[in-house]
Amino acid sequence: MALANWWSLIWSYVTKRFHSAVPFVGAALLGAGMLMMPTTRTYAWTALILDYGTLAFLLASPRLIREAWSTGHINLICEYRGEKGMKTVRLRLFRRGIFTIRLRLDRPPGECGLTSTGTIGTWQCEGARLELRTERESAVFEVIPDRSPEVLRQSTGFTSWESSHELSLASIEFVMKEKHAA
Questions:
Q1: pTM for the complete prediction?
Q2: Who's near 99: CB < 8 A, 6+ residues apart?
């Protein structure tokens, strides 16, 4: 299993497509095997770094913990929800200018296709204008005047989402559902 994890790294490099490794399984099996042999018993701990899947997870752990903290409920400033047809969208704005957006498609039973997608990025608010930025693209939302609770509508969308009718957020009104002290 540890060799298969290293193979996934090599195969990802060769094919230029991501092939995921499995953390802990290869390290557990390799470590258990090393514990059974008296000559390698003292080195069994090295299984944690000899297995690529576990090593990658250990190296990524600080970032995963930071992201989990940044998008935790304690850092939530406000949440907007929008619905149209089979689409339900949740836009959450967090402290330090981080946002998450989650789109769920409620398909009829037996219908195939995408059921959920989302992204994370940074946000900036200037007056009645909210700009969301990911690594590759941005979207702009405008506050609809004289509405309570506050309502947002997209004026410029994420290019990759707007190119698909199913993912498009055009004409969806995002109603503020929850607001916390900033």
A1: 0.74
A2: 91, 92, 93, 120, 121, 122, 123, 132
